[in-house]
Design goal:
Layout lengths: L1 E9 L9 H20 L3 E7 L4 E5 L4 E5 L7 E10 L2 H8 L10 E6 L4
Antiparallel strand pairs: 1-5, 1-6, 2-5, 3-4
Length: 114
């Protein structure tokens, strides 16, 4: 089994257009989805949401800019770490993620221990 990082990308500004009930329902769908992965012993780390603001450091650290940029429509909203036998198995675990309801994407990256 291998560990994979799931990076959730979407237009999270769309969440602001949802009612409180719709946001709560989406959160429940996410909890149910991640719980189903955990129930099958494929969850390594539930992960967290990421703030929509941050800093980008380039080069030797001398250049620090604001980011991610607000004009970018799709940004990284969070992450989770799962365990699967292959990329294909990891893809199968993402199929019912509620991020797709936000026209989002999930980037899957194998974690290579150092």
């Amino acid at each position: 089994m291998k560990d994979f990082l799931l990076i959730f990308r979407a237009d999270y500004t769309r969440l602001a257009t949802l009612s409180d009930e719709e946001r709560q329902a989406m959160t429940k769908r996410y909890i149910d989805w991640i719980s189903s992965i955990a129930a099958n012993d494929n969850l390594v780390d539930r992960g967290n949401r990421l703030a929509p603001t941050g800093k980008v450091v380039s080069g030797t650290g001398d250049m620090v800019t604001n980011g991610p940029y607000t004009e970018v429509k799709e940004f990284i909203g969070g992450y989770s770490i799962i365990r699967a036998g292959s990329y294909e198995d990891a893809v199968a675990l993402t199929k019912s993620s509620p991020v797709f309801e936000l026209n989002g994407k999930i980037e899957i990256r194998e974690i290579s221990p150092m």
